[in-house]
Specification:
The chain has seven helices and no strands. With 204 residues, it is mostly helical. The protein is 69% helix and 0% strand.
Length: 204
């Protein structure tokens, strides 16, 4: 006796109840959200190059670029700076790294979220397929996002410690506490995901 052929995707789609088909198709409502994130990514690219141009121009003695750079990094707002120093350069570079890390977070949300919640991208065999996309799901995406947020928070905290002379003690305490909260939250998310994925098997 031969096995009956398995229903194809088209057959399963035809058998779906109209209401179920509507609810399942509603996932495409997220598409404009991901397109919006792509536009936000373009804004970050523009911001990155603007800050980089200001840094390079300030290195060559452009006072207007130096003024804009000092204003953007929040370095000693009441002090007139006539040339770059090591602290300003470090703050500017950390600001650029911060933009890159947030951009990486956006890519992770755009690609991973679309693949998980909207539709498959069919990138199997593509030479540029992200390594993490092979095993991405809602739980893995949540842990990766939490880890990325910790990295971004670390950059902000490092900028704060470099520019500590110009900040109030209350600001330092709150930023440190918020960073620790992010860290504990990420550990809790990772531990919960581990318990759900590798829970003890039931004995029969």
């Amino acid at each position: 006796m031969t096995d009956s052929p398995k229903p194809t995707a088209d057959t399963a789609r035809k058998r779906m109840h109209p209401l179920a088909h509507l609810m399942f198709g509603s996932r495409w409502l997220q598409l404009p959200l991901y397109i919006g994130l792509i536009l936000a990514q373009a804004v970050y690219v523009f911001q990155f190059w603007t800050e980089l141009v200001h840094l390079v121009e300030a290195a060559f003695g452009n006072q207007e670029a130096l003024k804009l750079l000092v204003s953007s990094v929040g370095y000693e707002p009441g002090v007139t700076v006539t040339k770059l120093n090591e602290t300003i350069i470090m703050l500017a570079v950390l600001a650029l790294i911060d933009v890159v890390m947030i951009s990486n977070l956006l890519i992770m949300v755009i690609i991973g979220g679309y693949e998980t919640f909207v539709s498959r991208l069919h990138l199997e065999g593509h030479p540029d397929q992200p390594e993490w996309l092979d095993h991405v799901n809602a739980s893995v995406l949540k842990v990766k996002l939490a880890t990325a947020i910790i990295g971004i928070s670390s950059i902000h905290l490092l900028k704060t410690f470099i520019n500590v002379e110009n900040l109030q003690e209350k600001t330092l305490i709150w930023q440190t506490a918020i960073h620790l909260a992010f860290l504990l939250s990420a550990l809790a998310i990772a531990y919960t995901d581990k318990l759900l994925s590798h829970g003890p098997s039931e004995k029969h």
